[in-house]
Specification:
This protein is mainly alpha-helical. It is built from 14 helices and no strands. The radius of gyration is 23 Å and the shape is globular. The two termini are 29 Å apart. Its main location: membrane.
Length: 274
């Protein structure tokens, strides 16, 4: 039964109003990228009287921006791929073979998922110092590997919904554990892999804490650190800061627009048995 027209109209008005409130900060940032510092101070919320593109020209003429983009792309791509591989293989092993040892290991992983990452930064830093991975992009990838626990829990729940008759039939045909995983399980869990991959990509790309703690060299900064670097100690060119922020957000906005359907499909498919 459809809701009354007045109720749907009221819901639309409420949702549009909430969307406008959410969009105000984005509008504020984007509109001020086309202003000079003086114009922004004079009228921060009004459209620019004269569109100024000098901020974008200066940002894209800075080689540090392209270097930080390359660093972020390397760290994000490698981290997410490794997270998905480790998480998927761990989930497959846990589901396929139930034992007291696996139950214990699952509890340990759950504990690691619950403990706040901020509380472990000091021991992790000392560990990376021992392996000479501090101030290294590969060391940053190692740190992000902790996100494989999140992948493991989501993928494990999805694997439990698979039709195990197919897996049993493959076992009867003589397929090994790795063959079953590679040829049967992996194609079937593609929806949840896309979903988890989108979540983890946005997390790694936008993360500020780990690069701040573990990266110190200017040539190894990620794009988020480059945005933070645009804030000066005494005076800040806020239009330039906002321009760098927008440039850093553009890849993730495009990425999310083209992958949002995979998030919905993966979550919905995982909630239906078989």
């Amino acid at each position: 039964m459809k809701a009354p027209m007045w109720r749907r109209a009221l819901l639309s008005v409420v949702m549009i109003t909430m969307a406008c409130f959410v969009a105000i900060p984005l509008y504020y940032i984007v509109i001020n990228t086309f202003k000079t510092q003086a114009d922004m101070v004079a009228s921060p919320l009004s459209p620019p009287t004269e569109w100024f593109f000098g901020n974008f020209k200066e940002v894209f003429s800075d080689p540090r921006i392209f270097r930080s983009f390359a660093n972020t792309l390397y760290v994000t791509a490698l981290s997410v791929i490794l997270q998905l591989v480790v998480g998927a293989m761990a989930a497959y092993a846990m589901v396929m073979r139930t034992s007291k040892l696996n139950a214990f290991l699952g509890g340990v992983l759950l504990l690691g998922f619950i403990v706040p990452g901020q509380s472990t930064l000091i021991p992790l830093y000392r560990t990376l110092v021992g392996f000479k991975l501090v101030d290294s992009l590969n060391g940053l990838v190692v740190m992000y590997m902790g996100g494989a626990i999140f992948c493991y829990f989501l993928i494990q729940g999805y694997i439990r919904t698979l039709p195990f008759e197919i897996i049993e039939a493959a076992r009867l045909d003589g397929a090994g554990a790795f063959q079953i995983f590679w040829r049967i399980v992996l194609p079937l869990i593609k929806p949840i892999l896309f979903t988890v991959g989108v979540f983890q990509t946005m997390w790694v790309w936008n993360d500020f804490l780990l690069p701040t703690v573990f990266i110190s060299s200017p040539g190894k900064r990620t794009i988020v650190l480059q945005v933070y670097n645009a804030v000066s100690e005494f005076t800040t060119d806020w239009p330039m800061f906002m321009t760098v922020s927008v440039v850093a957000l553009i890849p993730m906005v495009i990425f999310f627009v083209f992958t949002q359907k995979h998030i919905v499909n993966g979550l919905l498919a995982g909630g239906v048995k078989g």
